[in-house]
Amino acid sequence: MHGPASPGWLLVALCAATGAYCLLRMRSTVEEQRRAAGGEAVMGFGMAAMAVPATAFTPPPWAWPGYLAVFGAATVHALWAARAGGHHLHHLVGACAMVYMAVAMGASPAPPGGHAGHGGSGFPPLTVVLLLYFTAYVLLSGARLVPATAGAGTAAWGDRPELARACRLAMGIAMVAMLLTL
Q: What is the pLDDT of residues 10-56, one digit of tens each?
């Protein structure tokens, strides 16, 4: 990603922490929760890797096909799971957005002192559509999170719905930030 290094590292930390919590959620006794958490962990760690500031590390050319393979597989998995509807449709959009960002960042040559992926001529229409989707998702997720904090209860860490919602909200915010810097 391009831009100032400090916000980039904060984004890396946020996405990595979200991915780590999703790994904890995979220990849940609820099968559906485990499946969703696995996909979210892949997204969290993948977003963390893609968010590393270009001033610290410029990915080698072979990294972009690697991102495409990982997020392409996540897209196929989300497409298969989306047959049941529900939150899997959001996973499908998120995985497709990561494929789109990997293609955009891998296809654009890096400007001198900059980072690949930034065209400088405004936002492409698909980026605008994804920004609108994830902005709406963040706003709705935030609204759903507020009432959930009142009834936290004594559920295990992997089974706390308000923490899962907070992780999804954090990844939505990170996706908006990444799309804005694309």
A: 999 999 999 999 999 888 888 878 878 888 899 999 999 988 888 88
Question: 80 CB contacts (<8 Å, ≥6 apart)?
Answer: none
Q: Are 162 and 152 in contact (CB under 8 A)?
A: yes
Tokens encoding 24: 């904890």
pLDDT of res. 4: 64
pTM: 0.80
Locate 139 and state its tokens.
């706003």
CA diameter of the chain: 53
Residue carrying the six token digits 């804005």: 180
First to last CA, the chain: 7
pLDDT tens-digit series, residues 65-80: 999 999 999 999 888 8
Q: What is the DSSP letter of 114?
A: S
Give the sign of the dihedral formed by CA 130, CA 136, CA 140, CA 142.
positive
**Any idea of the CA torsion for 90, 75, 78, 83, to the nearest 10 degrees?**
100
CB neighbour class for 78 (10 Å; exposed up to 12, middle 13-18, buried from 19): buried
- Give CA–CA dist 79/72, Å, rounded: 10
Neighbours of 86 (CB within 10 A): 11
Other beta carbons within 10 angstroms of residue 109's beta carbon come to 7
